[in-house]
Design a protein that fits this description.
Length: 129
């Protein structure tokens, strides 16, 4: 499956920098766009993505924004979990929501038990935690 049009950009058929790609249980593909602070979903055979996390054309640290999203996973309910690297947090986006909820991290880099320092990966364990 080809995603995007092969040109770097900010429209819904472009990706600034794809740092990961994951398929959900029905074959849609989710791509965190590092440069554009967003996650796009492609449903085959569409030539354009749908914004499912973050904002179009800008990054930030508000609940509806991402800054350097590096990895993504999708649970069985369709919720999206995003490793928001430069915001030092993991965000959960409930399916269809326009805002994310911080579930890990404080937004400030650190080594405390409640902090992350530019996280770059996310996964479920065998119990889907």
């Amino acid at each position: 499956m080809k995603i995007g049009n092969g040109v770097t950009g900010t429209s819904l058929n472009n990706i600034g920098y794809a740092s990961d790609a994951k398929f959900d249980s029905i074959g849609d593909i989710y791509v965190p766009d590092w440069n554009n602070g967003r996650v796009l979903k492609w449903t085959p055979p569409s030539s354009s993505g749908t914004l499912v996390a973050g904002q179009i054309n800008y990054s930030g640290s508000n609940a509806d924004q991402l800054y350097g999203p590096s990895h993504v996973i999708i649970d069985s309910a369709g919720n999206i979990y995003v490793c928001d690297s430069y915001n030092n947090r993991i965000q959960r986006w409930i399916d269809g929501s326009s805002i994310g909820y911080t579930i890990v991290g404080t937004g400030i880099a650190g080594s405390g038990s409640n902090q992350l320092n530019i996280p770059f990966g996310i996964a479920f364990d065998s119990f889907n935690n």
